[in-house]
Amino acid sequence: MNWFDSPYGKQLLSTEQALIDAFIHDKFGYFALQLGSFDCNFLNNSRISTHLFNGGKHKNIAFHLDAIPLEKDSVDLIVCPHIIEQLTDIKSFFKDLSRVIVPGGYTLFISFNPYSFAGLRSLVGFDNHKPWNCKFKSPREVQSLLVKAGFTIEQAKFFHYQPIFNDNSDLLIGALENIGGRWLPLFGNIYCILAKKIMSGVTPIKPKWNRPKKIAVALNKGNI
After folding, report:
1. For domain 3-223, which CATH number applies: 3.40.50.150, 3.90.190.20, 3.30.565.10, 3.90.640.10?
2. Which of 105, 107, 187, 222 lies at 20 to 30 Å from 77 by C-alpha?
């Protein structure tokens, strides 16, 4: 069973699509990669030349998430929708991302917030299928690990403050978004993090000049 095929899941993906579009529309480069098995194309509005997908109906490259078989500094943007929940070794994954992404390139994560209605459902619900049987990671933990892997956090956003228990409903209650965004901004069901790989800079080193040794000159006044 794929929860994202339910009416609520489809509505959530549509909301995420709009947010991802806003995050990546001004990013340029040669190669963009979308990870995961979603059929939706989160790179549809990207201006980057070549789009790669390792799953879903747009799949054009095959590999598992435990290793990205691409060359070092070869990808300009990697979009990771709901990948964090599936990882068994998140530190190694982030290290691999840092290896593959070009200096100054970007990675974007979108995931469920454990401190939200989604987190509550995962904690006390009886769903034995993804994503509810996965372990959600907090945005603070994800940001910390990204920084340790060589990224800076460019943007971060919480959104979607709706109850997430009725899968057959696709009704979005605007009042809840306004209330949650204003009074409970850290408790949205979804968070999105855009991180940029730190560019390797050259630190100028001040040359050390060898000073000439003082030469003691003995003057024999008698010879002058």
Report:
1. 3.40.50.150
2. 187
